[in-house]
Amino acid sequence: MMAMRTGRLTRFLAATLAGGLPATVTAIVLLRAHGVSPRFFWTASILLAAAWAGGAWFTYRRLGYRLRTLANIISALREGDFSFRLRRGGREDAFGELTLEINTLAEALRAQRLVDTEATAMLRKLLGEIDVAVLSFDAHRKLRLVNRAGELLIGRTAEEITGCTAEELDLGACLEGDPSRTLTLDIPGTGGRWELRRGVFRHLGRPHTLVILSDVSRALRAEEVTAWKRLIRVMGHELNNSLAPIKSLSLSLEEMTGKDQLPADWREDLHRGLQVIGSRADSLNRFMGAYSTLARLPEPTPVPLDLAGLVHRVAEMETRLRPEVSDGPAMEIRADRDQLEQLLINLVRNAADASLETGGGVRISWAAEADLLLLSVRDEGPGLPDTANLFVPFFTTKPGGSGVGLFLCRQIAEAHQGSLQLADRTDGPGCEALLRLPVRAERTPPAPAIL
Among 16, 33, 196, 255, which is most buried by a count of CB atoms within 10 Å? Predict the structure, then answer.
């Protein structure tokens, strides 16, 4: 709109100047026709020509000054200097409107640059304070941006490494493979595990790759220490439950057989003591077998499975309390047959154990949600005893239980890219085990087992 107004102003001034020349010539001709004296004629002609030339020159200079002023202001805006303003700015003429619009544009650009500057400063401050390495590589795999955490990771300053390729910085693996994974970096002086996040963005119209690396070694070590403490506490409790009575009975039997005269019922005491020792030894053997099962959980081998057939087959295996199966949609999933069957057997067995306490029932159902399978096992038992320790290895509230069933179920679910949740039911007594699995589960490494 401003360009249109400027064009109209220029055409108007040019028309005015062009129209003044015929008027000047006409006035000179009329003077000549009226027969004025030659001296008056030439004086008047010179004055008229001078007036026309002076007006043309004044108009030219005035217009040129204004146009140069506008050009200087626009040049300053182009260079990023938004401090200049035109003094005259009103709506009284076209040039005044143009001046007002340019001043408004300069103010808008100044405000926008202030916002951008503050946002950039905040982003730089944020990138400098976080302990996550942020690096940007261009299309030629050369480093263009790095924050302080990235400098500490590589062990060199930003000035030293900017322009180096990812291979020169031993970060070539970060630009290849899965964009979201955990990896070990081979950077001198840097060890441990790092979580990688990679994405693509455009800067100045050119593609760049953003790499974010966070050190998970500390968190993993802290979780590992916590897991070992919990495992040692549970194993110590289980071992003490078996070894303490064995030791006590062994001492009692040794003391009894060491007497000169055995009591009359010594055979019965000896038989009963040996039975207890054997029972506790069997319990300890089952415990170690359960531990071995967890430690040797193999990687799943997915095959096509008919879900309805698998669920009905597992339901038929529970002979104490026949579960009710509510068939969902016909579905074929990819999963490890043996592992998924063992997971369902454990869930159904736990549900049956709970329902037998209260005389309730067990119901199995499934549904599809987007690309997920939602399989539910509901019981009518007393509910969950301790939700904080449900998936703690070797924790159990059942007499003679191993405490590995639910933990093993979750390991299997997560190895299939799924999840397992247990919660008390809201529509009645009992609890619900909800298994989520991708309909097309891919082969993935299992979760770390206890060693």
Answer: 196
Phi, psi values for residue 345, rounded to 5°: -60, -45
Q: Nearest-CA neighbor of 391 among 379, 408, 378?
A: 408
Which is nearest to 135 in space by CA: 118, 122, 152? 152
8 A C-beta contact, residue 97 and residue 91: yes
Task: Give Cα separations from 420 to 189, 367, 399, 408, 434 (angstroms).
Answer: 40, 15, 24, 11, 6
Residue 177's pLDDT is: 87
Q: Is the pLDDT of residue 62 over 80?
A: no
Report pTM. 0.42
CA separation for the pair 150, 136 (Å, rounded)? 10
Two tokens, residue 388: 């904080």
Q: What is the 3-state secondary structure (H, E, C) of the chain?
A: CHHHHHHHHHHHHHHHHHHHHHHHHHHHHHHHHCCCCHHHHHHHHHHHHHHHHHHHHHHHHHHHHHHHHHHHHHHHHHCCCCCCCCCCCCCCCHHHHHHHHHHHHHHHHHHHHHHHHHHHHHHHHHHHHCCCEEEEECCCCEEEEECHHHHHHHCCCHHHHCCCECCCCCCHHHHCCCCEEEEECCCCCCCCEEEEEEEEEEECCEEEEEEEEEECHHHHHHHHHHHHHHHHHHHHHHHHHHHHHHHHHHHHHHHHHCCCCCCCCHHHHHHHHHHHHHHHHHHHHHHHHHHHHHHCCCCCCCEEEEHHHHHHHHHHHCCCCCCEEECCCCCEEEECHHHHHHHHHHHHHHHHHHHHHHCCCEEEEEEEECCEEEEEEEECCCCCCCHHHCCCCCCCCCCCCCCCHHHHHHHHHHHCCCEEEEEECCCCCCEEEEEEEECCCCCCCCCCCCC
Place of tokens 């102003």: 9
Distances (CA, A) of 56 to 10, 13, 70: 13, 9, 21
Please name which of 138, 137, 139 lies closest in space to residue 154, comparing C-alpha atoms: 137
Torsion angle (degrees, nearest 10) of CA 374, 377, 381, 387: -50
What is d(CA 103, CA 73) in angstroms, rounded to the nearest whole number? 9
Contact 185, 150 (CB under 8 A): no
Give residue-wise pLDDT tens across range 139-181.
Answer: 999 999 888 888 888 888 888 999 999 888 888 888 988 888 8
